Amino acid sequence: MTIKEVAEKFDMTNDTLRYYEKVGLVGPVKKNSSGIRDYSEEDLKRIEFIKCMRSAGISIEVLKKYVDLYDEGESTKLERQHLLEEEQDKLEEKIKTMTEALEKLKYKIELYKTNKLDEYL
Amino acid sequence: MTIKEVAEKFDMTNDTLRYYEKVGLVGPVKKNSSGIRDYSEEDLKRIEFIKCMRSAGISIEVLKKYVDLYDEGESTKLERQHLLEEEQDKLEEKIKTMTEALEKLKYKIELYKTNKLDEYL
DNA sequence: TTATCACTTAGAGTCTAGTCTAAGTCAATA
DNA sequence: TATTGACTTAGACTAGACTCTAAGTGATAA
């Protein structure tokens, strides 16, 4: 699969895909005789996982760490699990914070709708 | 209330408070005869609201727009409501995305725990 | 054959949201 | 009186995550 196809499939830019490769999150992707990238099934799976985790706000630094541990092999399994568990905690916390903010936002909108707004901001 | 006290109360830095003032999110804050900031109750309420919204990822640009509309007065009420409703939609979408990512993360951790991990990454 | 187009690279530039620095003022304490 | 410490300013710097540019290559269409 070419970089263009991958970019379309996952709705991201070629630049982002090359950037992820440069920082070592993906690949190194195989290239054909003309030096053009040909993404493998495994590349695609990594990209999908990374895209999903990025959309949750997990940093490239953390993902890079995870990928590096994975590439080190079996011996890092437990460490990888712990890394993921830490990110789970952070993510749950973030969702909680955002849900609280959402509730406040909804309340404020309700005040606007019922014209009861005699408040600050 | 001094900048230091406000910073402590809301767990943020003096720099961030001055930055918010500089971009017009807060204040202008009253200053005493020595030029030292003295935050009012209203300033504190704004800061609290802004901090909450920032923690949900609402951009400074959007918040600035909201604050500016507010300062324009009554006539902007409906526009403000719409702005907030848009942010509500975005926020709900973001929470949904993050919750999905969280589910995937949990599933992956489960695979680690049960040693069924014969997967990619 | 020439032009076009998608790809390649290294590296510079951008945006957001702070964060830090330098130089200065003021009030209170040693 | 001298120094300490918290505050002030303007403006430079940073981190993270891209995004863009310039210069070049190679395959295909006219």
For this entry, give a set of tags.
mainly alpha; 121 residues; homodimer; 68% helix; DNA-binding
Q: Can you describe what's shown?
A:
The structure is a homodimer of 121-residue chains. Chain A has 121 residues and is an all-alpha fold. Helices cover 68% and strands 0% of the residues of chain A. The longest helix of chain A is centred in the last third of the chain and has 37 residues, at 77-113. Chain A starts with a helix and ends in an 8-residue tail after the last helix. The A-B interface holds A 42, 45-46, 49, 52-53, 55-58, 66-67, 70, 77, 80-81, 84-85, 87-88, 91-92, 94-95, 97-102, 104-106, 108-109, 112-113, 117, 120-121 and B 42, 45-46, 49, 52-53, 55-58, 66-67, 70, 77, 80-81, 84-85, 87-88, 91-92, 94-95, 97-102, 104-106, 108-109, 112-113, 117, 120-121. Chain A binds a DNA duplex (30 and 30 nucleotides) through residues 2-4, 13-16, 18-19, 23, 31, 34-37, 54, 59-61.
Cα separation of the termini of chain A: 51 Å
Q: Please give the most extensive interface between any two protein chains, plus how many residues each contributes.
A: A-B, 40 and 40 residues
Number of helices of chain A: 5
Oligomer: homodimer
- Helices and strands of chain A, in N-to-C order? HHHHH
Strand content of chain A: under 5%
Query: Quick one: how many beta strands of chain A?
Result: 0
Mean pLDDT score of chain A, rounded? 93
Rg of Cα set of chain A = 20 Å
**Which overall shape of chain A is indicated by the principal axes computed on the Cα atoms?**
elongated
Low-confidence stretches of chain A: none
Secondary-structure class of chain A: mainly alpha
Helix residue percentage of chain A: 55-70%
**Mind describing the biggest β-sheet of chain A?**
none
